[in-house]
Amino acid sequence: MKFIVWLIRVLIFLLLFVLALLNAQTATLNFLAGYVWQAPLIAIGFAFFAVGALAALLVTVPKNVRLRLENSRLKRELRVAKETPIPVEQPPLPPLI
Question: What domain count does the chain have?
Answer without folding.
Answer: 1
